[in-house]
Specification:
Blueprint: E1 16-24, E2 30-38, H1 44-55, E3 61-64, E4 70-73, E5 86-89, E6 94-97, E7 115-119, E8 141-142, E9 146-147, E10 158-168, E11 175-190, E12 193-194, E13 199-214, E14 219-229
Parallel strand pairs: 4-5
Antiparallel strand pairs: 1-2, 1-14, 3-4, 6-11, 7-11, 8-10, 9-10, 10-14, 11-12, 11-13
Length: about 230
């Protein structure tokens, strides 16, 4: 039985998140640097997955993937009254992955790897990638992201987890960048291990103060740093 709570009542997670966008000219020189802090950057998927982890598997929970397919967790079937695109994930556990994730080339999405996805329009209203999936910037080269190593959880300290990804504008035309999102691969955990092909869900979103124009052949580096108190 689902929990009847409005998705507009999001949990507030006290984490500080900063980001940096570095645009480089074709000769390697720096053309522009944007740095800022995003307040309450976590998407609906992330907050509801956090809630689901506390109630699983006693009742099902549903969230959209990045393309708008509803993922029904902890249930053997999609409810009969649901009419949109959906899949049921009956397993009692799941895990998330951001870097070096298996099976992603087979994922049915426009970008085939998790990491930091770029968009030509800003997020508004409910902060979900599925709402602006049609604005995903795809005609550029996405390189494999990296994540900061050596994360420790010492009580009373603050850990910083940084996700970094690089790109090249290989479209041949200027591109407007307005926002980006951290996207993770979600794997159902089966009796034999991780499911072979993951689903992609969003974790956090970031709107630039002002959209920027990304020139052809120019490079870009995007970093998102999550400061987690313990």
């Amino acid at each position: 039985m689902p929990v009847n709570i409005s998705r507009d009542r999001r949990l507030r997670v006290p984490l500080k998140v900063t980001y940096k966008v570095i645009i480089t000219n074709p000769d390697g020189s720096i053309a522009k640097v944007i740095e800022s802090t995003q307040e309450d950057p976590f998407t609906y998927d992330f907050v509801w997955l956090f809630y689901a982890s506390m109630i699983a598997p006693s009742q099902y929970m549903d969230i959209p993937d990045v393309a708008g397919t509803e993922l029904f967790l902890f249930t053997p079937g999609v409810p009969s009254g649901y009419t949109g695109p959906a899949v049921a994930i009956p397993y009692p556990s799941y895990t998330l992955c951001l870097v070096n994730c298996p099976g992603t080339p087979n994922a049915p999405y426009k970008v085939k790897l998790p990491g930091i996805w770029l968009f030509s329009t800003p997020f508004s209203g409910q902060s979900m990638v599925s709402n602006i999936y049609s604005s995903l910037i795809t005609n550029v080269t996405y390189y494999t992201p990296s994540i900061s190593p050596s994360i420790t959880a010492n009580i009373g300290t603050t850990n910083t987890i940084t996700i970094t990804q690089q790109y090249t504008n290989t479209s041949g035309s200027p591109i407007t960048l307005a926002s980006f999102a951290v996207v993770a691969a979600l794997y159902p955990v089966t009796s034999s291990g991780l499911a072979g092909t993951p689903y992609f869900i969003d974790i956090s979103y970031f709107n630039l103060p002002t959209p920027v124009v990304w020139s052809p052949a120019a490079g870009m580096t995007v970093q998102a740093s999550f400061q987690v108190p313990t």
